[in-house]
UniProtKB/TrEMBL annotation:
GO cellular component terms attached to this protein's record: membrane
Localization terms from the record: Membrane
Keyword Zinc listed: no
Coiled-coil portions: 326-353
Family recorded in the similarity comment: Belongs to the autoinducer-2 exporter (AI-2E) (TC 2.A.86) family.
InterPro entries noted in UniProt: AI-2E-like
UniProt keyword terms in alphabetical order: Coiled coil, Membrane, Transmembrane, Transmembrane helix
Source superkingdom: Bacteria
Transmembrane segments: 35-55, 67-88, 136-162, 198-219, 225-246, 258-276, 296-329
Name this protein carries in UniProt: Predicted PurR-regulated permease PerM
Species: Spirosoma endophyticum
Membrane-related topology note: Multi-pass membrane protein
Major place of residence: membrane
Length: 356
C-alpha cells in the first residue's frame, strides 16, 4: 500500500514531529534545566583535570569522575550553598525587620537634607528583595526535594559526560546544525565564558569579598561577615560590584558621626579594593578568557531572572553565542556572495569565449 504523503511532505512532517516532541521534552524538563546547565559548566571546568588523569595517565575513568564529583561537592557546592543560605537568611531578616533599614534611611536624609523615599516604599522594596533573593539563590528550605533532584541529575549527567566523553563529543558534532569551524568557535566561546565568569570571576569575587568583610570588621561595622558575603555576590556584577556594599557602609558611618571609620572604609575601598579588582581582572583576562564587561553585564541582567544564580554564566554565554553566530552568518554570506560572483564571472567568460 502506497503512502499518501509525498517524500517532501514526509520530510516536513518528520521535522514538525521532532520539533513538537522536543518541545514537550523541554517543557517537562524546564524545572530542571539548571541541572544540565550546571553539568555543562562543571564539565568545562574539570575537563583539563579529567584529561590529565584519565587520558594522559590512564587512570580509571569512573574513579576520576567520582573524585571530581566529590571534590565539586566539598569545595564548590557546600561552601556556595552555605553562603547562599546565610545571605538569604539575613536578607529575609532585614525584610521582616525593616525598622533597622528605615533608621539608616532617616539618618541619610538628615545628613543630606533630601527626602529619599517614603517608609512604605522602603518596606516594599525590602520585602521584594527578600523574595527575589530567595528565588534566584539555591535554598534547601525552599524545596529540599527539588534541590536534591537537581543536584543528583547534574552529577548523573556530568558522570556520563566524562565516562562516555568520546561518544558525547561525537554526538554534539553530529547533531549540532553548524559547520566544524563554527562548532570550534562556539566551543572556544564556551571555554572563555566559563573561565572568565566562573573561575576568574569567582576568584576576583572571593578576594573582594574577603577584603570588603575584613575592612568593615576592622572599622567596626556590625555584621561584617554578612556584608562580606554580600560583597562576594555583588562582585560578579561588573562596574558596580563591591562599591554597592562598602560605599553605603562608609557613608552610614559618616552619617553617624564616625568620621574616621567612614573615611577609612571609603579610602580602602577606592584605593585598595577597586584597584585589586582591576589588577586581578587584567592578570586573569589573558589566561582565563577575555570577555568584554558590557557583554558580562548585559548577560547577567538577561540571565539571572531566567536561570537564577547560573544566569551569571549562562547569560553572558548566550550573548557571546549570539555574537559568534552573527559573525558566522556575516562570514558565510560574504563567502556565498564571492562564490556567486565567481560563478557569474565564469559564465560570462565562457559566454565571451563561445562568441569568439
Amino acid at each position: 500500500m502506497n503512502n499518501i504523503y509525498t517524500p517532501q511532505q514526509q520530510r516536513i512532517l518528520l521535522i514538525a514531529s521532532l520539533i513538537i516532541i522536543a518541545g514537550f521534552i523541554l517543557f517537562g524538563l524546564s524545572g530542571y534545566i539548571s541541572a544540565f546547565l550546571g553539568a555543562g559548566i562543571l564539565y568545562v571546568v574539570f575537563r583539563p583535570w579529567f584529561t590529565a588523569l584519565a587520558i594522559k595517565r590512564n587512570w580509571n575513568r569512573s574513579l576520576v569522575t567520582t573524585l571530581l564529583i566529590i571534590f565539586s561537592v566539598v569545595v564548590i557546592i557546600m561552601p556556595f550553598l552555605t553562603l547562599s543560605l546565610l545571605l538569604i537568611d539575613r536578607i529575609q531578616y532585614y525584610s521582616q525587620h525593616t525598622e533597622d533599614i528605615l533608621n539608616l534611611v532617616k539618618k541619610a536624609e538628615e545628613l543630606t537634607g533630601y527626602k529619599i523615599t517614603s517608609q512604605q516604599n522602603v518596606q516594599t522594596i525590602l520585602r521584594q528583595g527578600g523574595t527575589y533573593a530567595s528565588r534566584i539563590l539555591p535554598s534547601i528550605a525552599g524545596g529540599a526535594l527539588d534541590f536534591i533532584v537537581i543536584l543528583g541529575l547534574m552529577f548523573f549527567t556530568l558522570y556520563f559526560m566524562f565516562v562516555q566523553q568520546e561518544s558525547f563529543q561525537k554526538g554534539l558534532q553530529k547533531y549540532l546544525p553548524f559547520k566544524r569551524d563554527t562548532q570550534k568557535e562556539l566551543g572556544e566561546s564556551l571555554k572563555n565564558n566559563v573561565n572568565a565568569n566562573v573561575l576568574g570571576q569567582a576568584l576576583v569575587s572571593l578576594v573582594q569579598g574577603v577584603l570588603t568583610g575584613a575592612t568593615l570588621w576592622i572599622f567596626g561595622v556590625p555584621d561584617a561577615l554578612f556584608w562580606g558575603t554580600v560583597a562576594f555576590f555583588m562582585a560578579f556584577i561588573p562596574v558596580l560590584g563591591t562599591p554597592l556594599v562598602w560605599g553605603p557602609a562608609g557613608l552610614i558611618q559618616l552619617s553617624q558621626g564616625n568620621t574616621g571609620q567612614g573615611a577609612g572604609i571609603l579610602l580602602v575601598g577606592v584605593i585598595v579594593i577597586i584597584n585589586i579588582d582591576n589588577l586581578l581582572r587584567i592578570m586573569l583576562a589573558k589566561r582565563m578568557g577575555d570577555i568584554h564587561p558590557l557583554v558580562t553585564l548585559a548577560g547577567i541582567v538577561l540571565g539571572v531572572p531566567i536561570f537564577g544564580i547560573l544566569g551569571l554564566v549562562v547569560g553572558p554565554l548566550l550573548l557571546s553565542y549570539f555574537i559568534v553566530l552573527i559573525d558566522v552568518f556575516e562570514r558565510e554570506n560574504k563567502k556565498q556572495e564571492k562564490e556567486v560572483a565567481l560563478a557569474q564571472e565564469q559564465v560570462e567568460v565562457a559566454a565571451e569565449q563561445g562568441k569568439k
